[in-house]
Structures are given as structure tokens and as C-alpha cells.
Amino acid sequence: MPEQEDTQAEETPIATRIPAWASWAGVALLVAAVLTALGMLGAGALPERVGPPIEQVAVEHTVLAPGRITLGVRNTGPDPVTIAQVFVNDAYVDVRGGDAPIERMGTTTLELNYPWLDGQPYLVSMLTSTGLVIEHEIPAAVATPRPGLQFYGLMILLGLYVGVIPVLLGMLVLPAARRSRPAVLRWLLAVTVGLLVFLAVDGASEGLELAQESGGAFGGATLVIFGGVAAYLALTAVDRYLRHRNSGTGGARGSGTRLSLMIACGIGLHNLGEGLAIGSAYAVGELALGAFLVIGFALHNTTEGVAIVAPLAQQRTRLAVLIGLGLLAGAPAIVGAIIGASVNNAELSALLLGVGVGAIAQVVMQILPALRPQGHRTADASAIAGVIVGIVLMYLTGLLVTA
Amino acid sequence: MSDRKAFLPLPPSRARSRRRFLVGGAVSGTAALAAASVNRLAAPARAGDPPDNGHAVHGGGVEGPTFRIGATVDHDANGFNPTEVLRDFDYGQTSRLPDGRTLRRWEIASSDEELEVAPGVRYPAWTFNSRVPGPTLRCTAGDRLQVQFTNGSAHPHTIHFHGIHPAEMDGVPGIGPGVIPPGKSFVYEFDAEPFGLHLYHCHVSPLAEHIARGLYGTFIVDPPAPRPAADEMVMVMHGYNTTFDGEGNQLYAVNGIPFHYMHEPVQVRRNELVRIYLVNVLEYDPINSFHVHANFFDYYPTGTRLEPSEYTDTVVQAQGQRGICELRFPHLGLFMFHAHKTEFAELGWMGFFEVTD
User: CA torsion sign, B19 to B20 to B26 to B32?
Assistant: First the structure.
């Protein structure tokens, strides 16, 4: 019938004849074309800049070799910068590199010929082509460690002392925890929450401080915050996936192991950041190696081992799994130390610290439900007291490290 | 990565060894400076060094302060060369007055110039006659002087002379013609007195900036009986505050360009009398100084007496002070001269005399 044919013709409108991907590609091309045209033609209609060029530069890394200071410099401002001359402690020095203007977000390497002395402070002043002086401080000059057997050996040792051994020590509370009442276990978990909250706040403040020092070419503080948010969301996704996979199998045991795994992951990411801080402090000569460092960190990080085994108190777990969890939490300190000492990039360190914070926040959210007694909807006073005890414990052991 | 407050400070033994390093460094640094000055061999060449003409030590590291090795300022683009400024005396246009005195006339114009003061560093200078320092005006005591000043700059200026003259010719705002606006001109007229070495500069507010930007020059009044014949040269000590914060200078120089006389040493003959008209116009720093290596000079403060007051190798001058140094070089070779405030020396106020037969 004629009406039916008309209706059928109307039911295939133009939109369905072009496949979806083609229309997306078309839009993308159109936007690109308009933006290009705007950039090339439209910008001319705007007035020239008012005022002198804005010159901002961040020194991303410093390498000290005998008689030579090498700076990796990035242009963090909107206008090109040319570093014409450099003076160190009020004396002009010969510079190799940086002859050409540094474009926006571009980098260059400046090699300064200067007879620096071990342990002394130096102020490097970069004189740009417009006469602006940009200063970079080296608080105490030490030869940058070069990669080699001795260096890697030292970093591994540091990571072991600071990460792996303390965590494994902390996990020794497991037998005692297994023989305790559920109330004690809940309290232990509350202390764990306190520990993790302290770590999160401490890591966040350190990350933000680092981001501020670095000049913020890649976002500074926002990089830290979004790193944390991304880590939080990523770990949540992992957790949901694991939950989905294990749903129906394992039951309570599965959830205990899963919680421990998440805690170990979170602490591992945090220890990556801590290892980074230690490695980069070593690289710039600000690390006092010795007994105080080892004992201080050991006490501080032993509490992290407690946090990992607390969810496992009500089940039997294979030794291999326990050791694996300990290594997962502690070994990233080794990796962090190596990266921190060799790369020494403040913004990267800040980002990784932010990631650690996000991971810990996720873990804390995981544990919170377990603080409630059976059948209750909220945690009781002793649990909250446990959280406070955890924070205080981490704060006091943290003082030993900073003292 | 500066404030890693988490870790312990260095133990006391490191602090002691740090002090030892400081003393050792100072001793070896001075020794190196002295050694470099008499060393005719060039510094070891590195890839990219320009061919060495055997003249000055290029510096770098322990060998001394330097700009980027191999780069110098484009003097042609600047419009003046410190090597020429050194021995350039402007005696002006002379004519005879009815009473027999000499009338000397100069034309000076102020202009805003963008100069390359160090390789790759541009500075918006205010100049007299497009050079820093301004022209060296020279006359004899008793002359009648006329300086026609035309303000070609975008800012108001004056010329204030150090000498003895009436108040309207003093070049100070509010007296006589006062401030000369852009585009206008004025003739400063006065007698050349007293004999000696003097200077002139702009006297408009903000005064420090108007001087520091380059508006200064030397004004020499010869005594009625000329001084003994000598190889005469002018050295004006000054600096550039490129950051314009008024708290110090980032570059120090003599005769316009920092480190210039390291690359083009001042050529003098052995045993010939050398007379240096030394003027200090350094702004933002309280005093400046002048030191010659391996030689001593007779010093005539302000040049107003014909007897020297000192026989020395180092003099200090506050801003506006000046004096004449007379010396002979008994030995051949390269001899450094520089401020003895080492900070100024290492930031550009350093050069070489090259003594030949």
C-alpha cells in the first residue's frame, strides 16, 4: 500500500546511512580545520602583547661532576627564553649549550665550567637576553652519584632497610593477632586506619611542597592532586574487578586476602614515593646515612606491616603469600630509591607521592567497613580511639626519622 | 629538592673540612689569578674554541671568569668600540674670542639605544652621542666652553658638569633652563675651571636611573702648562643593572663593555709614560676600585694638583670621584688590571695591558 511505502522510506533517514565512525571523524576534522584557521588568521586581529616578555624557567635536574655543573632547564613560561650568560656565586662562567632560544615547554642543557667544592652552597644565576636574572640554588654541592655496581648495591640496601625488612617485621604480629578476640582485631584495624591516614596526609604535604619547588611546568600542585585522584580511581576499579571475579568463591577468606592485597598495593605505592625521596636526597647530598636513618625508618615502617596482616587474622594464609605481600609493600622502596637518585626530577617525585596518597586513601575506604562491630551500623568509640592511636604512633615514630 | 627537612644535618667533622676547603680555595684562586696574568700560553683548547691569537688567556673554570668562550659583542651594531673610546679625546670646535680666549664648542645629543652589553644580552641604554660612556670633552683651563645639548631621547634630560660655573649652567631641574624636554635643546656656557679631571652626567630624577642607564662622560680641563707628553687614555668605570631593581649591578665594566679588554688588551709600549684618566660613575654600589698588576702608579686625585698624592697599585673611588694615574711598564707581557672588589672583577670589570717594545 502507498502509505506503508512512504513510512518505510521515512524510517531510513539520512543519519543512519553514514556510519558512526565517519561522522565522528568528520566532526574532528571540521574542528581541527576551524582551529587552524583561527590560529593562523584570527590571532592577527588581537593586539600585540603589552609589557616585556614573560620569562620563566625551571631547573629540572642538576648534575655535579668535578669542575662541571650541568643543569637541565625547561621553559615554563609563555614566551621563548634565551639564556645568554650565567654567573655562579657572582662570577661569570663559560657555558656550553643553551645558545638558541628555548621555546615554550622546551628544554636545554647548560654545562657550566666551574670549580665547585664539596659541601659548599652555590647560587647559579642565569642572565637572559633581556637582562633578567633567574636564580637556582644548590644548597650543598656533592658529586652526583653515577650508576654503577656500588650505587645500585647501595640503593638496594637502602630499600631493604627502609622498606622490606620493616614491613616483614611488622607482619610478625600475625600469630598474636590470630589468638585475639574480634574486638581486639577490630581495634587493630582501627589503628591501621590511623597509620594510613597519617601516611596519606604526610605524603600529600610532601608532594605539594615538592611541586611548589619545581616551578610547576606540568601543573605543580594540580598534578599531585590529580595523580592521587587517578590512583584512587584506578585502584577502585581493580578492586571492583577482583570482587567481581571472586564473587561466590572464597567468601570471607577471599575478602580478607583481597583486602590485604589492596593494602599491600597502597603501601607499596606509598613506599615508592618514600624511596624516591630518599634517593633524590642522597643524590643531592642531603641524606645523612647511618644508624639513625635505619632505626628511624624501621620503626616507622614496621607499623605498615601491621596494617597488611590485620585483615588476615581470621584465616590461615600460606607463608609464600605473606612474604609476597611483604615484598609487594616493601620492594617498591628499592625501585623508588634508584629512580630518585638517578632521575632527580622534582615534578615526577611529586606526582608519585600524589599517586601514593590516592592509593592509601582507597585502601582506607576499603578498611572502614570492617571497623563496625557485627550487626552495628557505625563504629564504636574504641574503634575511633584506635584511629587516633594509629595517627599518634606514626607521628611519634616519624619524629625519630626527622629528629 | 632543597628543603629535604627529613634528614639529619652533616656532622661537625664535615663542617671543619668545609672550612679547610674555603681557605684552600681562596689561596689557590688568588695564585691562579696571578699565574694567569703572566702566562702567555693560552688555556688548553676545547672543541669549538676559536683559533687562539696568543694574546689573552681565555679563562673559564680555575683560569678566571669569562662570558661564553668564543662569543664577543658586536661593536659595529652597538656603534662604538671600547678600544677606540680609550684614546678618543674630543677637543671640540675652536675659535678665537675678541679678548683672545679660546671658544670651544661641542654638540651633544642624547639618544635611547638598545645595546648589546654582553654577548647575547641586550640593554636599553640612554646615551650621549650614541656611545657609553659619552664623549670625552677636553679643553684647556681658561677656555670659554659652549655645549649645545639636544635631547633626542624620549625622556627629559640635562647635562650637569663637575666644575666651577654659574647656577643656571648647572644642569639641575628647576634652576635656569631646568629639565630639557625631548626634542628641545639648550647651550650650556661657562668657563673651563678648575684644571683637572672631571665628569658630566644627567641630573634628572630618578637620578640613580638616569645616571646608571649610560648618561655620563669624562670632562678634562688641561692645566695652562700642559702635562708631560704621555700615552693618554680614558677609563670610565661603571656598571649595568640589567634587572632594573636598583639593588646592584649584574655587569661591571670599564668604557662600556664588560671583559672587553680581556679580548682586546690595551696596547702600550715598554717604559713609555702612560697616563690614565680614571673616572668612577658606578651606580648602586658604594665604591669602586682600580688595581694594576705588577706595576705602581703615581696618583693625582681629581687631577687638580700637579704633585701626586700617592704611589700605589690600588685606589678606591666613590661615585663621582676621579683621578689621574701615571705609570711606566718596565716589563713586557700581559698585565691584568681590574677592580679590587673581586665581585666586580668577576662580573666584568677586568682587562689586560699588553706591553710590547
Answer: negative
The interface predicted TM-score of the complex, written ipTM, equals 0.81
Task: Kindly list the residues from chain B whose CB atom is less than 8 angstroms away from the CB atom of residue A132.
Answer: 242-243
Q: Is the peptide bond before A145 cis (omega within 30 degrees of 0)?
A: no
Out of A87, A210, A401, the one facing B347 most closely (by C-beta) is: A87
Q: Yes or no: say if A141 and A120 are a contact pair by the CB < 8 Å rule.
A: yes
Q: Residue A20 half-sphere exposure, CB side, CA atoms within 13 Å?
A: 0
> With contacts defined as CB-CB under 8 Å, which chain A residues touch B17?
119
Give yes or no for a contact between A360 and A266, defined as CB atoms under 8 angstroms apart.
yes
Pick the closest to residue B150 from B105, B203, B109 (CA basis): B109
What is the CA B100 to chain-centroid distance, rounded? 36
Closest CA in chain B for residue A280: B1
Rounded to the nearest angstrom, the gap between the alpha carbon of residue A54 and the centroid of all alpha carbons in its chain is: 30
The two beta strands, B231-240 and B273-280, are parallel
Strands B102-118 and B144-151: parallel
Residuewise pLDDT in 10s, chain B (357 residues): 333 444 444 444 443 433 333 333 333 433 343 333 333 332 333 333 444 444 445 678 899 999 999 889 999 999 999 999 999 999 999 999 999 999 999 999 999 999 999 999 999 999 999 999 999 999 999 999 999 999 999 999 999 999 999 999 999 999 999 999 999 999 999 999 999 999 999 999 999 999 999 999 999 999 999 999 999 999 999 999 999 999 999 999 999 999 999 999 999 999 999 999 999 999 999 999 999 999 999 999 999 999 999 999 999 999 999 999 999 999 999 999 999 999 999 999 999 999 999
End-to-end CA distance of chain A: 93
Q: Is A105 helix (H, G, I), strand (E, B) or coil?
A: coil
